Amino acid sequence: MTTPSTSGYAPVNGMEIYWESHGAGGTPLVLVHPGFGLASSFGQLARQLSVRRQVIAVELQAHGHTRDIDRPFSYQAFGDDIAGVLAHLGIDRADLLGYSLGGGVCLRAVIQYPERVRRVVLVSTPYRSDGWFSDVRDQMALVGPGIVDQLTQSPVYAAWVAVAPDIGAFPSLVTKTGDLVREAYDWTDEVSRLRVPTMLVYGDADSMPPAHCAEFFALLGGGLRDAGWDGAPPTPMRLAILPGRTHYDVAAAPELATMLDGFLG
Questions:
Q1: Running DSSP on this structure, what letter comes out for residue 29?
Q2: I need a labelling partner for 105 at 20 to 30 A (CA). Which of 52, 86, 124, 180 fits?
Q3: Is the CB of residue 125 less than 8 Å from the CB of residue 101?
Q4: Among the CATH numbers 3.40.50.170, 3.40.50.2300, 3.40.50.1820, 3.40.50.1980, which is that of 6-223+233-260?
């Protein structure tokens, strides 16, 4: 992303959560990065969206500029943190966009605080932990102290260490992330009660099968009947499966910004 017009720290739940704001106007759009990500993780997509509206990127506990605290990672706690950032910034209602781990965070935020969310976009996000392909879950099982040395040789670490206030906290970030991604969850009942307009975005070679994506859409009330002759969508929910995209590059699809503009308005 470009240099932020403003940035700062939100005192939330015993932390100072880093945020940065780009652009102006419209309903604020809050971006939540994937695991090991930063406020800058959305790159060109964030730049495109901030031309037409205010975009606020946050960094979760132990990510980027935000220091770690003595608290395990949990999707529910991260959902509380997002609501706390909105309250600190004086934002009554926002749009949310989360990618992968950040999508789980945004899903919990809208489940826990539906009155604070106008619309939500979930990119490469399952609604059950067993929605991930089994080989992906096998890889998640390896995330922990045993791969810290390997990760310190990666671009992920280089980007993190360039902004982290405590470079000795990286092993804690890896360990807590591993504990989180191995956590079993099933949010079927809560998802089925959601009424906030939601857009689901996946690659057709994502880390979960298209069948899971369609099941998620159906839980939201989408894809259950024909739109009818007038062409009006039966629900405000949307599903996009982008061709030739994977879990790792779906947010870089050049057509995504236009699709999001159409949904977010």
A1: E
A2: 52
A3: no
A4: 3.40.50.1820
